[in-house]
Amino acid sequence: MIEPIARLRRMVLIRTVEAQLMARRDHGFQLYSTGEEAVAVGLCAALSPTDQLLSSGRAIGPALARGLDPAAVIAELLGKASGVNRGKAGRGHLAQPEAGFLGAHTVVAGNLTLAAGAALACQRAGEGAIVAVIFGDGACGAGALHETMNIAALWRLPLLLVCDNNGLSVSTPVARSMAASPLATLAAPFGMASATIDGMDVERVHTAAAGLIAGIRAGGGPAFLECRSERLTPHSSATRDTRAAPDLAAARARCPIARAAARLAGEGALDAAAFAALEQAVSAEVARGFALADAAPYPDPAEALSDVG
Amino acid sequence: MIYKLLVPGPIDDVEQVRVLEWHVAPGETCTLGQLVVELETHKALVEVRAEHPAVLRTILCDSGQWVAVGAPMALLSDGADEALPDSLDALADMPLAFEVN
Amino acid sequence: MSAEAAAGTARIFFREAIARALAEEMARDPRLLVLGQDVGAFGGSYKEFTGLHARFGDDRVRDMPVAEAGMVGVGVGAAALGHRTLVSITYMDFLMLALDPLVNYAAKARFKTGGRLRVPIVVKTTAGAKGQGVAHSQCIEAWMMGVPGLTVLAPSTPADAYGLLKAALRHDGPVVFIDHKRLFPKSGEVPLADHVLPIGAACVVRAGTDVTVTSHGYMVHIALEAAERLQAEAGISAEVIDLRSLAPLDTGTIAASVARTGAIVTLEEGQLTCGVGSEICFRLGEIMGRMPRAARVGPLAAPVSSNPVLEGECLPDAARLVAAVRKLLE
Question: In this structure, which CATH number among 3.20.20.20, 3.40.50.720, 3.40.50.920, 3.40.50.11810 belongs to the domain C203-329?
Fold first, then answer.
C-alpha cells in the first residue's frame, strides 16, 4: 500500500472506531478526534518508531495514528481489562510507551512540560529520538506552554509542539481566548522554527511535520507546528454543540478523509470502488475489535488498589 | 600577657562551627589584621583576624573539629616565652575582628 | 558526641547530608538528574547542592528558569522515560505552582497506565517559617498526604535526611522530600557507610511512659525540648516519636506507643485542620476501637507573618506543647 493510502486508511480507522463507539449506548465519556484525524495521522507518519508522542485528552486519534492495536484501544475505551492500560486509563490517559506513545494527559496544557522532560530524556539518551506533543488551541493561553517553550528553546530540546487548533475551547472561539494570531507566532520570541498550515490536509501535515522534525533531529532545537483543523463533533460526548448549522456544515465540507480520498482518486491511485473496499475492511476490523472488547471482562474490582503506590 | 582566642559571635542561627583551616602555626606571630583561622558555619565561612599582634602558642581545636560559639580555639601571648596557665578562666580575650562571608 | 565516640559516623551539617546522599546516588545512577532554581554552581539556597555541579556538570545539575510548574513537569517527563530526577522547589509554598504534574500526573501515572509507567521523581522542598512571611513559610505536607501514589518524607536530623533522601532516590514512584529552614543550621552524626532508611518507618526518639508526642521535621526538636521540660517541671515522662514518613504513615509504631502511654499529643507546624495530627488521631481511634486521650498542637489558624512578634505568636513552641500535655493529663 502506498503511503498516502496507508494514511487515508489510518484516518478512516479513527473515524470508524469513533463512529461505532458513538453509536453505542455505553460509549462512556469521550472527546472525539472526528474531523481532526489528519493532524494526528500526518504527524505520526513523520515520526520514527523510537520517538515518543504525547497527546491531550483528545487521544483516540493520536493513539490509533501512532499504531496502537485498535482492538486494545477499543477495549480501553470501554473500560475492559484487555485494554491497553487494563481498562484503567480510558480515553484520557491512554499510554503505551513501548509503542512510542508516552500517552495522553487530560489536563489542558498539562502534557506540555511533561513532553519537554521526555525530550530531555531523549536528548540525554543521545539516540536521536524526538518527542512530539499534540495540544489544542485551548492550551495556548496557559502558562505551561510558555514555560515549556522557554525551557525547550534554552536547552535546544528535541521537541515538536503540535497545536491542533480546532478553533474552539469547548464553546469559546480562539479569537476570544487568544490575543496572538496565528498561534504559531507564539513561538517566535523563543527563536523556534514554526509554521501554520491547513490541518485538514494529511499530506500537508506530513510534509510540514517531516520538515520540522528534520531540523529538530539535526540539533536545531524545538519547533512549533500549528494545524488549523475542524472538530466535527461537540467538544465531548457530554457537551452540546454551540455552532450554528451552516458553520457546522462548512466544517464538515472540509472533511480530511473525503479530501484525501478525492486527491487519490484524482491521481488515479484509489478509485471509488477501492475506497469503498477500504472502508468496508476497516469497518469489519473495527467491528471485530468491538466484539472482542464486548467479550472481555471488566477489571477485577481489586484493580482499584493495584499499581497505586 | 596571655590571651584566649574565642569563636566569635553572635552569628545568626549559629551555635557551633567547624574549624576549616589555621593560617598561623604555633610559635608564629600574628600581625595586626592577619587572618588567623577560617571557620565554617552551615552556610558561610568566617574569617577571624588578629586585632593585636601576638604569638600563637597552642591550638585547642584542629581543622575539622567542632566548637561552640564563645568557646576557646587557641592561646596567644605577647611574649614568646610567657608561661601558659593551667586554667583559661582568668585569661583576657584575644582582640579579634571577624567577617562572615 | 564526637566522631571518635561514635565509631562509623562523622558529624556534618544538615546541608552536607543532603549533598552527600545526592552525590552518592548520582555516582550510582548515571541517569540521575538534579533540576531547579540555583542548584548549579551557586549550590542551592542552603548550599545543600554544593559540589554537585562541579563534579557532575551542567548536563546533570541544571539551573532552571523560575517556573515551578515547568521544573516539576520537566522532571516528571524525564522520569517517566526512565531518567530519575530530583527537582528542587526552593520553598514549599511554591510547590503549589507545580501540583498538576506532581499530583495529576506523577502520582497517578503507574495506576492510570495499568502499570506501564513509573515516575521516579523526588521533589525536594524546604518548608517552615523563618521570618519570610505569608507566602514563604507554609507547611503543606498534609495536602500531599491525601494524594494516593505520593510518598511524603520529612527528616529531622542530618542522619535521617541522608538515609531518607537515599531511600527516596531509589524509590520507584514520586516522593516529596521536605526539609525545613530551621534544620539547616543543625549538624549531627551521620553514618560513614552507605545507609538507606526504610520508607514508612517512624522512630521513637525519646522513650517515655505517660504520653506519646508525635511530630516530624523541625518540630521534632521542639517536641524533645518540651519533653525535657515536662520531665523537669511536672515529672511527666513523654515518649517522642519522629514520624519521618508521613505517607505512608507508620501507625503501628504510634499505636504501640499510645497503647503503653494511654495518651497522644501531636505537634506540627502546618495547619491543624485536616492536618497530620487529625489524621493520626483518627486512625488511632480506628485501630484501637476507641479514641485515645488526644490533643493537637499547631500554629494559629492564621497566615504566618514576617513580623517576628506575629510569627512567634503564630507558631507552636515548647511552651504550648507543655501546656497542652499538662492539660490533657490533668
Answer: 3.40.50.920
Q: Contact, C96 vs C134, CB < 8 A?
A: no
Number of domains observed in the structure of chain A: 1
Prediction pTM value: 0.95
Interface contact C148-A124, CB threshold 8 A: no
Give me the domain span that covers residue B69: 2-83+92-100
pLDDT digits (tens, 9 = 90+) for C32-87: 999 999 999 999 999 999 999 999 999 999 999 999 999 999 999 999 999 999 99
Whether residue C221 lies in the annotated active site:
no
Name chain A's partners: 3 or more CB pairs within 8 A.
Answer: C
The answer to whether the beta carbons of residues C261 and C295 sit under 8 Å apart is no
Domain C11-191 has CATH 3.90.1150.200: no
ipTM for the predicted complex comes to 0.95
**Contacting residues for A194 by C-beta, under 8 A, at least 6 apart:** A184, A185, A187, A188, A223, A224, A225, A226
Residues 6+ apart with CB under 8 A from C220: C156, C205, C240, C242
Residue A32 in grid coordinates: 472525539
Chains A, B in contact: 3+ Cβ pairs under 8 A? no
Among the partner residues C33, C69, C114, nearest to A89 by beta-carbon distance? C114
Chosen for mutation from B16, B43, B61, B101 (greatest number of chain C CBs closer than 10 Å) is B43
C25, C48, C53, C136: the active-site residue:
C136
